Amino acid sequence: MSIEDKSKREESSQFVVIQLAGEEYGIPIMNIETLIRMPQITRVPRMPAYIEGIINLRGRIIPIIDLRKRFGFPARAWDDKTRIAVTDISRQSVGFIADGVSEVIRLARKQIDTVPPTLSRIGEEYIDGIGKVGDRIIILLNAERILSETEQTQLKKTDLEATPAREQTQQ
Fold first, then answer.
1. How far is CA 2 from CA 5, 81, 106, 140, in A?
2. Measuring CA to CA, how many Å separate 62 from each of 46, 65, 94?
3. What are phi and psi of 58, to 5 degrees?
């Protein structure tokens, strides 16, 4: 790779584009482990309403977050387009339910604007920037900040509590 090619790559970032409540959101591809169809979700007692439960993905317990509930959007029935984006947040795998996934895009730095101070639909603490692709606007999410540190700790505790039960069922 030439120096010029390397410089161009550093000036752009890739995002997985998800749909949520009629809008497009981008999650940095480096945070995405995998995209899956909706499996059976096991509910966990006393979790916040936006935590749908847990799934077993190739022997790993993954907590599942409904982004519609997390961001305060109206509920919607899951369908054949609904997907889970399994992400890595602080070395913890977490699944985010999205209405759909459309594509992977590369955005140059000049295509990304800062978050306007008046943006408050889902809370600017979750947003890293606004991507512009032609006439489209893609809200760029910060996967690390979708859950607070306290919530991340709570999910890790849930995973640890589920591990002994999982090991017993595998014996």
1. 5, 40, 19, 29
2. 17, 10, 6
3. 50, 45
Neighbouring C-beta atoms of residue 111, cutoff 10 Å = 17
Single out the residue of 54, 50, 45, 8 nearest to residue 151, CA to CA: 50
* Beta pairing, strands 100-108 & 92-98: unpaired
- Please give the structure tokens belonging to residue 144: 């690390």
> What SS3 class is residue 147?
coil
Using pLDDT thresholds of 50, 70 and 90, give the confidence band for residue 95.
very high
Residue 19 CA to residue 16 CA, distance in Å, equals 10
Neighbouring C-beta atoms of residue 7, cutoff 10 Å: 10
pLDDT in tens, 105-148: 999 999 999 887 776 555 667 888 999 999 999 999 988 888 76
How far is 85 from 94, CA to CA, in rounded Å? 8
Per-residue burial over 75-88, b if 16 or more Cβ lie within 10 Å, else e, is: eeeeeeebbbbbbe
